[in-house]
């Protein structure tokens, strides 16, 4: 029996990621991420490396990967974009939620990411999908809207 050398580490975002972040430049992570023939583990390593890098260039690379054929990867993209809380990702997230042909898991995560970003410009789209036939989507929109409300109240309390 082989003993595990070390457990996965908790990221700076408080999550245990399904793959350790790769090292290297953004351009290399982008190349791996967009390669449909690359192993999913390597693509996930690129996702977390880009999230940790945090630049607008990294956000753009993550958003460009929404063209992937993998719903699992698209879900993870929405998740990390929510963690990053960069409004630059909103157009891509809005497109994922609005695409009723998109996998429900991706749409749900896109809605939650919008709430995490906390930008009121997401409100009309989130309200539009409050009655989505998929409960995963409608409930995620409800949670995101409640988070937007909470953020707005917190701003008033701080003023």
Question: Can you give a write-up of this model?
Answer:
The protein is mostly helical. The chain has a single domain (26-158), classed as Leucine-rich Repeat Variant (Alpha Horseshoe). It is built from 8 helices and no strands. The chain has helices at residues 26-34, 40-53, 56-64, 71-84, 90-98, 104-117, 123-128, 135-158. α2 runs antiparallel to α3 and α4 (71-84) packs parallel to α6. The termini are far apart.
Q: How would you characterize the largest beta sheet?
A: none
Mean pLDDT: 93
Radius of gyration (CA) equals 16 Å
How many domains in all? 1
Distance from N terminus to C terminus (CA atoms, Å) equals 59 Å
* CATH-level-4 superfamily name: Leucine-rich Repeat Variant
Proportion in helices = 55-70%
Task: Name the shape in a single word.
Answer: globular
CATH class: Mainly Alpha
Q: Could you name the CATH topology?
A: Leucine-rich Repeat Variant
**CATH architecture, please?**
Alpha Horseshoe
Any low-confidence stretches, pLDDT <50, length ≥5? none
Number of helices: 8
Please report the total strand number as a whole number.
Answer: 0
Instruction: Decide which structural class fits the backbone.
Output: mainly alpha
């Amino acid at each position: 029996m082989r003993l595990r050398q070390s457990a996965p580490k908790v990221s700076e975002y408080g999550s245990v990621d399904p793959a350790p972040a790769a090292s290297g430049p953004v351009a290399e992570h982008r190349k791996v991420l967009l390669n449909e023939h690359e192993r999913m583990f390597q693509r996930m390593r690129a996702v977390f490396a880009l999230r940790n890098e945090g630049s607008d260039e990294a956000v753009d690379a993550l958003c460009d990967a929404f063209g992937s054929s993998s719903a699992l990867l698209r879900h993870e993209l929405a998740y990390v974009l929510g963690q990053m809380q960069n409004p630059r990702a909103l157009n891509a997230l809005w497109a994922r939620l609005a695409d009723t042909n998109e996998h429900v898991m991706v749409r749900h995560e896109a809605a939650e990411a919008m709430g995490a970003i906390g930008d009121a410009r997401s409100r009309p789209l989130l309200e539009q999908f409050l009655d989505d036939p998929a409960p995963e989507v409608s409930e995620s929109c409800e949670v995101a809207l409640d988070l937007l409300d909470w953020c707005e109240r917190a701003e008033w309390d701080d003023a």
